[in-house]
Amino acid sequence: MHQLAKPAALALAGFAMIAPLAAQEADDPELIFKKTTVWRMLSPDAKLATYALDDPLVEGIACHFTVPEVGGWSGWAGFAEERSETSLSCKQTGPISFKGKFAQGDDVYRMRRSLFFKKFHISRGCDAKRNVLVYLSYTDKLIEGSPQNSTTTVAITPWGSLPAPKCGDFLEK
Fold first, then answer.
1. The overall pTM is greater than 0.85
2. CA–CA gap between residue 115 and residue 21 (Å, rounded)
3. Considering just the CA atoms, what is the radius of gyration of the chain in Å?
4. How high is the pLDDT of residue 96?
5. Is 54 buried (19+), middle (13-18) or exposed (0-12) by CB count in 10 A?
6. What is the spatial distance between Cα 6 and Cα 19, in angstroms, rounded to a whole number?
7. d(CA 93, CA 64)
8. Quick one: pLDDT at residue 11?
9. Tell me, what DSSP letter sits at residue 168?
10. Could you tell me the end-to-end alpha-carbon distance of the chain, in angstroms, rounded to an integer?
11. pLDDT band at 120 (very low <50, low <70, confident <90, very high)
12. What is the pLDDT of residue 41?
């Protein structure tokens, strides 16, 4: 029985490491395109990847963000820690409707940027006075996060004959 315990423990540990990565794939945003930033002859290139993401709580908002991808064999294998730089742009693409209430700073999306410790976030807030949605992209790390970030705003405007909802009405108090 002891001889079977060790392989079973290794298999469980391997699954525990891979399961979060597999779960992330189900929620992945749509890849629009990639551009090479560092060409490497014998290993994968470093790239910038641009993605599209619809806000899951606010219908009528689409965001596009770009994140760097480390090249080389360690980047290809997922062992390299990805860089912290991001860019973000969100726009109104149709009539805006809220599917529920939200808190200031709620995450719209999260992505792992290293095997264990670093995550990329897109968070949402509401400037109720101006009726503007505010989106922030940043990375955090278990020990020390990065101050590098990107912010974009979406003024909520009427669409056709539909009146513009007030984002402040959907903030959790």
1. no
2. 9
3. 20
4. 95
5. middle
6. 20
7. 12
8. 44
9. G
10. 55
11. confident
12. 65
CB atoms within 10 A of CB 65: 24
Q: Is 44 in contact with 71 (CB distance < 8 Å)?
A: yes
What is the strand order of the sheet 118-127 is part of?
106-112, 118-127, 132-141, 149-155
Q: Which of 107, 131, 126, 119 is nearest to 56 (CA)?
A: 107
Confidence (pLDDT) at 36: 80
pLDDT at residue 86, as a whole number: 81
> Quick one: DSSP state of residue 102?
B
Q: How far apart are CA 79 and CA 138, in angstroms?
A: 20
Q: In what order do the strands lie in the sheet with 46-54?
A: 30-38, 46-54, 58-69, 87-98
Other beta carbons less than 10 A from residue 18's beta carbon: 11
Structure-token pair, residue 48: 């910038």
For 55-160, where are the E strands, in sequence order?
58-69, 87-98, 106-112, 118-127, 132-141, 149-155
pLDDT tens by residue, 7-22: 444 444 444 444 333 3
23 in helix, strand or coil? Answer: helix
The two structure tokens encoding residue 104: 């200031």
